[in-house]
Amino acid sequence: MGETPKSRGFKSKRGQQNDENRVPPGQHVTADFPILSAGPTPQIKVADWKLALQLGGRLLGTWSWDEFEALPQTTVKVDIHCVTTWSKLDTKWQGVTFDDLLKAIGLSEPPEPYVMAHCDGGYTTNVPVADLLGGKGMIATRFDGLPIASAHGGPARLLVPHLYFWKSGKWVRRIRFMPQDERGFWESRGYHNYGDPWKEQRYDGD
Length: 206
Ligand SMILES: Nc1nc2c(c(=O)[nH]1)N[C@H]1C(S)=C(S)[C@@H](COP(=O)(O)O)O[C@H]1N2
Ligand SMILES: [Mo]
Description:
The chain is mostly beta strands. The chain is built from 3 helices and 11 strands, in the order H-E-E-E-H-E-E-H-E-E-E-E-E-E. The chain has helices spanning 17-22, 65-69, 98-104, and strands at residues 28-29, 50-55, 58-64, 74-81, 86-97, 114-119, 124-128, 138-143, 146-147, 157-159, 172-178. Strand 8 (138-143) and strand 9 form a beta hairpin. The chain is globular, with a radius of gyration of 17 Å. 30% of the residues are buried. Mean pLDDT is 93; it is low at 2-17. Bound molecules: the ligand Nc1nc2c(c(=O)[nH]1)N[C@H]1C(S)=C(S)[C@@H](COP(=O)(O)O)O[C@H]1N2 and molybdenum atom (MO). Residues 1, 33-38, 82, 119, 121, 123, 152-153, 165-166, 168-171 line the site of ligand MTE.
């Protein structure tokens, strides 16, 4: 991630009002898709891939790639916001919503109020379950209609676009339900525990 100047000011330009209202404070729009990874990019074959939902010492559900692909698929077009100040508008993703994952294991209610997403390579990030339900979070497997590139988290990444993008764990393998909140990788290294871009919750204490 890295240091970023804080610019809370926001200049209004005629004709771009709509886009500007879509960009949280201190962010600027980029057309690129920057890559931000704390470690090396794993090359994961879908034949070796598996997703697990975990509660305590138990696995509530596991999916091979083919099983995961057979789950109901949802496509979204969303804006994403990295804490390093870039935002990218109208990104298109396809995957399985968290609601549909819970349904697939026969749950109408989440078993605990928090999750930790565990990713290949050890990266973790914590999210309240409420921020994943109601279509707010998904495990994405396609970007722009194509398989997600390894560097961007392929074959599957968490997507929680209404929070800073560090919450969207790449190469996600396991979602662990937690009775109490715990901090993930960046959350225990000075970044905000929740990370609402509209409230500029970049660092702990913001
Ligand atoms: N596994 C893993 N997921 C991760 C990261 C990481 O280092 N490892 N970086 C996070 C950060 S800080 C950001 S901004 C986004 C970047 O996603 P991108 O590289 O696809 O732009 O991924 C997030 N998910
Ligand atoms: Mo980030």
